[in-house]
């Protein structure tokens, strides 16, 4: 039989766990590169860009478009990689907290 009080307790437990996980995610960092390491971007779990590193060989005026393109590529890769890390952390942290309810997926939070 379905126990509503038990379910509510599990939900509160899940909410607290999610709060803790979100605090931990903010501490995660990831660096990705583009152009064989010529441009590097570092992001955190809050999806904020923390640092951009550009190889000094790229710092010529005629390379401006290349620098812009590689910077965008590095940032996008770092953010995509961080999204995957966040998803994995969320799945690990909420494993076993809630019953398996079809259509109820916390991985995209």
UniProtKB/TrEMBL annotation:
The keyword Transmembrane appears for this protein: no
Coiled coil: 4-31
Gene Ontology molecular-function annotations: DNA binding
Transmembrane segments: none
InterPro entries linked: YbaB-like_sf, YbaB/EbfC
Gene3D superfamilies: Nucleoid-associated protein YbaB-like domain
Subcellular location as annotated: Cytoplasm, Nucleoid
Oligomer status and interactors: Homodimer.
PANTHER family, alphabetized: NUCLEOID-ASSOCIATED PROTEIN YBAB
Function field: Binds to DNA and alters its conformation. May be involved in regulation of gene expression, nucleoid organization and DNA protection.
Record protein name field: Nucleoid-associated protein SAMN05421780_101448
Organism: Flexibacter flexilis DSM 6793
